[in-house]
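Incident log, support desk, overnight shift.

02:14 A customer reports that sequence design results differ from what the structure should imply. Their input is reproduced verbatim below. On-call engineer (initials T.W.) acknowledged and began investigating.
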């Protein structure tokens, strides 16, 4: 049973009205009603691995303590092959890197990263219910090298290790600005950012320490940055 945050629903509607107008806001509302009526969706990934990672879930369905919830996006799942293609484009050995998913939701990207052999896998999620589902999925797959840190991505302090930071458009620029600032403080020798649907790409371009590498072949909706020089 969902614990709907009515205030957040109202704030989201007002923000969308200001941004895209009444007609587009109504169209999106009708689309979301269709999603809610259908409930949980079954997909090939979950059938294959016996997990629960599917569906699109708006944040207003949850009670979240962080004030940054108003800047968050709905939960979305990445296609397994899309993430594999993006990681392959780095031309790095995953076993020498830590994978960090900001806004990990139910943990599909964590499962994919673990399957690819990353040394450590970390998910950051501020919705308790989603974090718990992610933990169950990881436990079901026996991924001992993966953990879910429950908390606000804006306050997350990155480890001082070589890493890949993954984002599926989880929040708007108000939070992303803080994420970029926190990344700058990391002492990672190698740092990569994989960003799906990169609405805040300009913040990374203007960071002064990250260089845009482009996108994987045929995937213009994914952009990659690096603070290291690929050999």
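02:41 Re-run completed on a clean worker. Output:
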């Amino acid at each position: 049973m969902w614990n709907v945050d009515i205030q957040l629903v109202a704030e989201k509607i007002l923000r969308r009205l200001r941004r895209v107008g009444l007609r587009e806001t109504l169209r999106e509302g009708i689309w979301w009603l269709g999603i809610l009526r259908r409930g949980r969706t079954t997909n090939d990934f979950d059938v294959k691995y016996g997990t629960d990672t599917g569906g699109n879930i708006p944040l207003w369905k949850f009670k979240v303590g962080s004030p940054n919830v108003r800047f968050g996006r709905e939960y979305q799942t990445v296609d397994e092959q899309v993430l594999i293609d993006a990681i392959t484009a780095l031309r790095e050995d995953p076993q020498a890197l830590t994978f960090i998913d900001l806004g990990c939701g139910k943990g599909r990207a964590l499962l994919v990263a673990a399957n690819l052999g990353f040394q450590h896998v970390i998910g950051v999620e501020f919705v308790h219910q989603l974090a718990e589902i992610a933990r169950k999925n990881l436990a079901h797959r026996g991924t001992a090298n993966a953990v879910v840190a429950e908390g606000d991505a804006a306050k997350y302090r990155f480890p001082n290790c070589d890493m890949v930071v993954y984002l599926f458009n989880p929040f708007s620029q108000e939070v992303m600005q803080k994420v970029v600032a926190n990344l700058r403080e990391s002492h990672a020798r190698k740092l990569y950012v994989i960003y799906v649907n990169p609405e805040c790409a300009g913040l990374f371009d203007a960071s002064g320490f990250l260089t845009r590498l482009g996108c994987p072949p045929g995937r213009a909706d994914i952009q990659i940055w690096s603070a290291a020089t690929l050999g």
